[in-house]
Amino acid sequence: METEQVEDVEALAADDSPPRTMSDLGPRLRQARKAHKKTLRVLAEEVGCSPSLLSKIENEQATPSLRTLHRILAALDTSIVHLFTGDTAHDEISLMRAESRPAVKVSHTGNGAGILLERLTPTFPDLLLDANIHTLEPGAESGGDIQHAGQEVGYVLQGRVELIVDGKSHFLGQGDSFFFASSLPHRYRNIDPDVSRILWVATPATF
Fold this sequence. Notes:
By secondary structure, the chain is of the alpha+beta class. Helices cover 20% and strands 29% of the residues. It contains 5 helices and 10 strands, in the order βαααααβββββββββ. The protein has helices at residues 25-35, 40-47, 51-58, 66-75, 80-83, and strands spanning 20-21, 102-107, 114-119, 130-136, 151-158, 160-165, 168-173, 177-181, 186-190, 196-203. The strands form 2 sheets. Strands 1-2-3-4-10-5-8 form a 7-stranded mixed sheet, with no helix packed on it. The model is unreliable at 1-17 (pLDDT under 50).
């Protein structure tokens, strides 16, 4: 079972234009769970965590690790993109201003260091690419291996990170990039004493 650090949803490393956090993630996860007619206990067994943790996440009293969030979304056959999709048609060109860029905060057990996922792509059902800026606090990590269909590419904007793909560690610094098949187990952590930031693009849209 995983236990998560309870912390407020807030912006990380905010400079002139802090991102706008998606503050109703918990209620949207609860709505998706109920739509699938799953109890907290059933979903917790599928995710590999406790029902009490899921309840705290749904009531926004705790934030999940990246791996736990991914497992919840997979068990509910959904994604962040679909959770926040509107009913209206989307334009072929979408602009997202720095001051209004939405973001989701995730955290990991232990030191409580958080990861902020700042969305660069809009949310609509037929989205093929999912792009985010991952901002990692010192000591932050994704919380364990993640696997899913697709491909991923990333570029380190700031700091130093350890990327572990299929059990092999790769140490990356500012200006380094990476690519791998999402079907390989992967995770990462910030090894810089300061904040690290990664531009991360994946297909299909997983989060």
